[in-house]
Amino acid sequence: MPNRIEMFRRVERQYFRDRLGTLGLQPLDGLIIRQLGREGHLKQEELACKIAVDKGAVARSLARLEEQGLVQRQVSDQCRREKRVSLTSQGREMLAVVQQVMREWNDISYRGFSQEERALYEAFLTRITDNVMQFRRGEERDHG
Fold first, then answer.
1. pTM of the model
2. How far apart are CA 133 and CA 81, in angstroms?
3. CATH 1.10.260.40 matches 4-109
4. Does the keyword DNA-binding feature in the UniProt annotation (predicted)?
C-alpha cells in the first residue's frame, strides 16, 4: 500500500499546481505570497528558511513574482548583499486569492472532521513540524 503521506502530498501538489497555475503562479509562488502576507516583509534568506526551501529556488520564484508585479525586492540599508522582500499592492490582492485556494484545499482535506479533530491534528502537525525544523537546523544532534 502506498505511503499515505506521500499520496496526500502528491494530490495536494497537483491541486495547487492546477489552481495556482490558472493565476500564472507556481505552488512555491503561493507559499511565498502567503508567508509575506503573514510577515509583511522579510530578508530573502529569512523567507527561504521560514518556508524550508532552497535559497536558489526562492530567488527564482521571487524573480518571477517581481516580474509579475507581485513583490518588490529592496537592497537593505545595513548590508548591500541582503534584499528585503515585500508584497506590492497587486501582491496583496493576489494574497486574498491564494488564501482562498488554500481554504478550499483545507475544506477538501478536513471534510467530515469535527472542529476538535481539526484542532488536534493541527496541534500534532505543529509539534511534528517543530521537531523536524529543529533537526534541520542541527539543534538536535542525537536524533532522539
1. 0.82
2. 26
3. no
4. yes
